[in-house]
Automatic annotation (TrEMBL), chains A, B:
First-listed, main subcellular location of the protein, grouped into a coarse class: other
Positions of FAD binding: 150, 189
Record-stated family: Belongs to the acyl-CoA oxidase family.
SUPFAM superfamilies reported in the protein's UniProt record: Acyl-CoA dehydrogenase C-terminal domain-like, Acyl-CoA dehydrogenase NM domain-like
Domain Acyl-coenzyme A oxidase N-terminal: 24-140
Pathway(s) the chain acts in: Lipid metabolism; peroxisomal fatty acid beta-oxidation
GO molecular function, one term: ATP binding
One matching Pfam family: Acyl-CoA_dh_M
Protein's cellular compartments: Peroxisome
Domain named Acyl-CoA oxidase C-terminal: residues: 486-661
Species assigned in the record: Caenorhabditis auriculariae
Protein name: Acyl-coenzyme A oxidase
InterPro entries reported for this sequence: ACOX_C_alpha1 (IPR055060), Acyl-CoA_ox_N (IPR029320), Acyl-CoA_Oxase/DH_mid-dom (IPR006091), Acyl-CoA_Oxase/DH_mid-dom_sf (IPR046373), Acyl-CoA_oxidase (IPR012258), Acyl-CoA_oxidase_C (IPR002655), AcylCo_DH-like_C (IPR036250), AcylCoA_DH/ox_N_sf (IPR037069)
Keyword entries, A-Z: ATP-binding, FAD, Fatty acid metabolism, Flavoprotein, Lipid metabolism, Nucleotide-binding, Oxidoreductase, Peroxisome
């Protein structure tokens, strides 16, 4: 079988790995990326990005100072958005994300929030007249906007934001103010230095009453000079764990006046005399949130896939230690412990990617339903996407670190790209809804479902139908070979259901002794566990179902990966499966052996499985994960670019260490 | 009770927390740090460091470029070592580590390896004449040395190092050479720019035979100009996940000649004619390794303690969300989920610190025994310290990230210090023996013990006596309140013993089907689990024992912490306790409730518990973890120092974003 990943001059070990592949890689890549046409488009976008030198970095960004990184990112984002005709702008989930990943790497940039939050907010929250005015400016890039909601002292709980917008009917203006330091807007991407506009969320006061948080469009900087406007203090919030090419910022208002019509008035309005008009619909934007989540989940899957690719490729070229004495050092990928560290991460990446596709499709289904006024699926899918966001971002972060640690010392170097990948991905545990808060939202939904089941009034959609099912009393497992997909799902459903009702009963009991909120808090750890099982069940089910739709010659290898994913979950939480005698120890021991069997079966295809994710070196930006496996000379070349190596002797040698040694010597 | 941590002007919430404290903090601090005299010395060292402005940073290091950090670190290390008379040099475990932590923070520096590896190697490996010559130079700081062993392509497996030292009897010299790129020395701290000497480990060749890796002392740079000597290529290996103030380096030799007597000849020798004299003892340095491990474990405990301190203090001043509607936002420390994230980390920090003390004491006991030729305890303690190193470094890294994530968005900022703490601490999973390799070493020891037990010939020392005990068939647990320390230990012993014999049987079976090494590899995941249980058992046992020696008025609160540590381990691995019907579900459910009870009991003392670790703001270097709790104004002040804020408008605005917007505007 031809294999486009094998090229002359490659490391011999990695080539041998590729020759062992038992499936058609191109077909697998097409399956992973949603079809041959999508794969073809990836290749075209890659060619374009490679051909446009201005979309590249003059040197690896890890050698740049933060100011240089911010400048470099702003240069590239202008060039990138100058050339959006190269991609299908309507397909951000596919082409847009790939184009951006190739160009901007793992740093956000001056216009991240412009596209992801500023423009969508204008589209969703302005009335027609406002939309005409602002949207054209934003789309033409005549202004650069961000979205300023979070404050120094306030995150998740919007109702307590402190920034105020007092309406003054005399001048028909709002007065924006930050009454305290904790009211400072804090974190918005590109707020510090790049943006000259922002949608600002502030507590609206009119006619002496607070009407809660509302969005306003606010000019922050002068158009020509880019200097902050009077009454506005803003700046960069400093370096972070990751995304240091982005100027996340802070913003303080000192009685800044904006015209009345700068309040975004699609839903609520303030009339010239100060009369407040309430919004007609209260819960909006659920749909968009689900779409943003599907993108996040895909992005996380992609980061974990990249980490797996780097670590598995490196483990195939790194030789260390001998399994059999005097028979030569082995590829570290041959160690069972190494496989146990790495392959489950790859399996997770698949599980998460397939879930992202599914959420995107569900989003489209719900959007379609909503146009007919049908909101049936909305709560279920909103809960699922919140839960997925939490579980996926956490497992991704953990998985990336496992991949990094599996590369030993070299994983610690920024040459590996792991520090950058981790810093970027782990942010997903916090932004777009802190994970623990998200899990509790999911739990509220599940507790409602449990209540309905108890009352016999449940009408549960497919995703949580298991809560209402009776299910088996004992696992149907007899042997790993005869362990069918539906048995696996049934076993996970048992545990998920048990946990739902365990939490439900605990909560009910607690509610008899305390008010409902205190009771909830006293059960919150168990409630979070409940949500996690709900999500894990979904991930396994969806993964197995997806595999069954794969071209028949891909199914065997994908099935190994999916089963590894499921078996790993089951054996890592064996206690849950033992409860009420549902599973026996001999069954669990067999499944544990099943994990090792899966590792063994995946081993020969491991490199090709990651190849089929179709990462170009341009996207990985990792010396350890190079396609050609020629890691060591590349590490040396990379290191030589370190700014410390600009001179043979650091200019500061003569200030400290030199005099110290000379003085000591003179005294001896 | 007076509380030195309460001061005027502090945040009200944190002061109220401190007022709730039920124990004597000073007494607790003394207990944690090994006595009142030790605590007193800490305070004196702190005063000195604060009083010497040259030991401080001109600005927070997170705003410096890497070159600036390296320069700053080299300035401070010279000043620090100019003033070693301020501490008791014989007490590195106590005073030395504290002095260094206060001065150098979480960056290593130009002389880290000079003191930790270069000088000890000289002391251990030179003959008397060599020692006279080199040790005085090193101690006087007339030379700066490092220890160069690891190579680009070779880490753990020393026998395959590629650097060669060929003896030439004609000139009585060794010729050092790096025959390949993978032979490049890679990673040694301070090798890139700072050191002018190194102990280099190379394969010794004489009279046509390879005698394996041996240490040589090699001059790398000219004394005066600090330029690399002829035939020597060296430099910095580039930025890393952490410790970026250190110039970890690479080194290549092109047939560099050194005198015969630059081979360190305490054990092996090469005579002028090339005759090789074998070492008399083969296994040496075990003792030193144990000492280094005790320091590492203490350092890890200290990092996790710092992370817990930051997160718990911040959780006491951060208010977000309402548990009871309209009753005001609560301290996030009141959420059960937050307590469940944070308190187990604090409990681990205690467990690890107490283990470090114990290992240090055992080291001294063993050293004492060794002087009488008694090596009885050595293998046991070596195995234990290897296992502790693995479990502690992994749990510490995980724990730090939990603390960081529990601080939400602000945890992601470098102002929190978490990115720095994590980057520094997680390195411990890899250096001084990669964790998975370490765990397998421990497992070899445990399998030998199991074999002896099976044969009835076991003579096990206390640490692994449990392997030979019969133990209970069922847990003695009846209720959380009556769950005695010895019952807890007995339950953990059951699981640890089960796992030892499970792995042993699996290994024996595998050995019947394959050669011993392949069999080992096929069981290695289970073997690592075995080692982890061995260590966890030790940690719990040691923690409970240590608490029982605490002053009586401290015992109650410490006991809550120790039990939380144990209950968390038990409930996180419930499956292991269910096996063979050892524990019942109702017992496990009670222990799970016991976790929540411990959280509840620890809650009022949480801030004071971390206060009693006695971290000064100078050591924490965290805006979120400030003693005074005045986090928000400090965050704003910190951010203002960001290099991006030096000008209101970035100079690059007129290069990219400015022209883009102007052009767009002109076209509208």
């Amino acid at each position: 079988m031809s294999n486009r990943w094998i090229q002359p001059g490659d490391n011999v070990d990695i080539t041998n790995e590729r020759k062992k592949c038992t499936f058609d890689i191109e077909k697998m890549s097409a399956f992973i990326h949603g079809g041959e046409d999508k794969l073809q488009r990836r290749r075209e976008i890659l060619e374009y990005v490679k051909s446009n030198k201005s979309l590249g970095d003059p040197q690896p960004i890890e050698f740049m100072t933060r100011n240089e990184r911010v400048e470099n990112a702003s240069r590239k984002i202008v060039e990138m958005t100058n050339n959006t005709d190269q991609i299908d702008g309507s397909d951000f989930f596919g082409e847009g994300m790939y184009y951006q990943a190739l160009t901007m790497g793992r740093d956000l940039h001056a216009m991240s929030l412009h596209y992801v939050m500023f423009i969508p907010t204008l589209q969703g929250q302005t009335d027609d007249e406002q939309l005409d005015h602002w949207l054209s400016l934003a789309i033409a890039r005549a202004i650069v906007g961000t979205y300023a909601q979070t404050e120094l002292g306030h995150g998740t709980n919007l109702s307590k934001l402190e920034t105020t917008a007092h309406y003054d009917p005399k001048t028909e203006e709002f007065v924006l103010n930050s009454p305290t330091i904790t009211a400072a807007k804090w974190w918005p991407g590109a707020l510090g230095k790049s943006s000259n506009y922002a949608v600002v969320v502030a507590q609206l006061y009119t006619q002496g009453e607070c009407k809660g948080p509302h969005p306003f469009i606010v000019q922050l900087r002068e158009m020509d000079t880019h200097k902050p406007l009077k009454g506005i203090t803003l700046g960069d919030i400093g370096p972070k764990l990751g995304i240091n090419g982005s100027d996340n910022g802070f913003l303080l208002f000192d009685h800044v006046r904006i015209p009345r019509r700068h309040m975004l008035m699609r839903y609520s309005k303030v009339l010239p005399d100060g009369t407040y008009i309430k919004p007609q619909h209260s819960k909006l934007g659920y749909g968009t949130m689900v779409f943003v989540r599907s993108i996040m989940i895909k992005d996380q899957a992609s980061q974990l896939g990249a980490a797996s690719t780097i670590a598995i490729r490196y483990a195939s070229v790194r030789r260390q230690g001998e399994i059999i004495p005097n028979s030569g050092e082995v590829q570290i990928l041959d160690y069972q412990t190494q496989q146990y560290r790495l392959f489950p991460q790859l399996a997770r990446a698949f599980a998460f990617l397939f879930a992202a596709y599914e959420i995107r499709d569900l989003y489209m289904k719900v959007t379609e339903q909503l146009t007919h006024g049908n909101t049936e699926l909305l709560p279920e899918i909103h809960a699922l996407s919140s839960g997925l966001k939490s579980v996926v971002s956490w497992d991704t972060a953990q998985g990336i670190e496992q991949c990094r640690l599996a590369c030993g010392g070299h994983g610690y170097s920024q040459a590996s790209a792991f520090p950058e990948i981790y810093g970027y991905a782990v942010g997903g545990c916090t932004y777009e809804g802190e994970n623990i808060v998200m899990l509790q939202q999911v739990a509220r939904f599940l507790m409602k479902a449990a209540e309905e089941v108890k009352k016999g009034s449940a009408n549960l959609a497919e995703i949580c139908a298991y809560i209402g099912r009776k299910g088996e009393q004992h696992s149907r497992f007899t042997s790993v070979d005869s362990y069918r997909d539906e048995d696996i799902v049934s076993d996970l459903e048992y545990v998920a259901r048990q946990q739902v009702f365990r939490a439900y009963e605990k909560l009910r009991k607690a509610q008899q002794q305390a008010n409902s909120e205190t009771a909830w808090n006293s059960c919150s750890v168990e409630l979070c566990k409940t949500s996690r099982w709900h999500v894990r069940l979904y991930l396994v089910k969806n993964f197995l179902a997806k595999v069954s739709t794969a071209p028949s010659d891909l199914r065997a290898v994908l099935h190994d990966v999916a089963r590894l994913y499921a078996f790993d979950i089951i054996t890592s939480s064996s206690g849950n499966f033992y409860e009420n005698g549902y599973m026996r120890e001999d069954q669990m021991n067999e499944i544990r052996e099943g994990v090792y069997k899966c590792l063994h079966r995946i081993r020969p295809n491991a490199v090709s499985l990651v190849d089929s994710w179709d990462y170009d070196d341009r996207e990985l930006k990792s010396v350890l994960g190079r396609r050609d496996g020629n890691v060591y000379p590349a590490l040396l070349e990379w290191a030589k670019q370190s700014p410390l190596n600009k001179t043979e002797v650091l200019p500061t040698f003569d200030k400290y260490l030199g005099p110290m040694m000379r003085e000591a010597k003179s005294k001896l």
